[in-house]
Automatic annotation (TrEMBL):
Cross-referenced PANTHER family: RIBOSOME MATURATION PROTEIN SBDS
Protein source organism: Parathielavia appendiculata
Protein name stated in the entry: Ribosome maturation protein SDO1
Keyword Nucleus among UniProt keywords: yes
Span of domain Ribosome maturation protein SDO1/SBDS N-terminal: 14-101
Amino acid sequence: MVIQQPSNQIKLTNVSLVRLKKGKKRFELACYKNKVLEWRSGIEKDLDNVLQIPSVFLNVSKGQTAPSAELAKAFGKETSVDDIILEILRKGELQVGEKERTAQLERVHNEVVSIITSKLVDPRTKRVYTPGMIDKALDMLSSMAHQNQQQQQQHTDKTSNPSTAPGTPSTSEPGESKPNRPSHLPTWTGVVTTKSAKSQALDAMKALIAHQPIPVARARMRLRITCSTNVLKQPVKAPKAPASAEGGGDSGEHKAPGTVKDKILSFVEQVESQDVVGSEWEVVGFVEPGAFKGLSDFVGGETKGQGRVEVLDMAVTHED
C-alpha cells in the first residue's frame, strides 16, 4: 500500500484542464483558469503564467504524471516534453467548471449582442435597438428553432413508427398539416464557446433579418465613389442571357444596364451629394452592406483603375 506523504502528493486547486487523446492514451495539463484562451489568442506569451506545473499528466486529479515511455510511444521518441506541452495546448480540449463555462457563455453572448446592436437598425427610423431588445429577439429565434426541432422529431417518430391501429396510413394525408420543418432560412439556437463572437454575430444577424422577430435591417454604409469622367458615359456590357428552353423567350430582363455612371448609381440606395471636381466625378451616398462587394468589384474592373470606393462610415445609425 502506497502511503501518501507530502513529498509524493501533488494537490492542485483552481485548475483548468487541457486534455488530448493520442495513441489510445489521454494526456492532461494543469493550467490556470482563462490563461489557455489568452495563450491561444496570442495575448499571453509566457507559459509559466499558463501552466500550474510544467508536466504532462495521465490524471491531474490523482496527480499521476505521464511516464516518459508513454510520451515517447504517443508523440515520438524525438519529441521533447516542451513540444508535447505545446501540442496539447494547441490541440487539446479545454475542460472548465460549470461556473466558468456559464461565465464564458455569458461573456460571448454579451459580445454578440453588442456587435449586433452596432450593425442592425430599425428599417423605418434607422435607429439602433437597445441590447435588451436584441436579446429578446434572439430568445424568440432560439425558441422558434427549438420548437421546429421538436416538431420535426415528432414527425420523424410518427413516420418511422406507423400506428398499429388497422387501416391507419403510415404517411400523412395530402391535406394534413405538417410540422414547420426547418427551411433554407438561417436559424439561431444560441451562443457557443467554440466559435468567435464575430462569426456568431454574423450568423445571428442573418437569422434576425430572415425571420424578422422585430423589424431589423443592416445599417447602411456611407461611401465615397470617385471615377474619371472619361469612363462615365461608356456603356456597360450586359451579362449574357442563359439559353431559353423554349428558344426565344422575353429578353426584356437582359437589356444593357446603361452607362458606367448608371450602374454605379444603381448600387447607391440614397445619394447624399454628387459633384464633378476637375476630371473626376464624385458621389457620396448610402449603400447596403451586401451590395458593397459588387460595387467595389464593378468599379475596380469596369473603370480599369480610374475609379475607387472609400468607406466613410461602416454603419450609419441614429441613436437619439
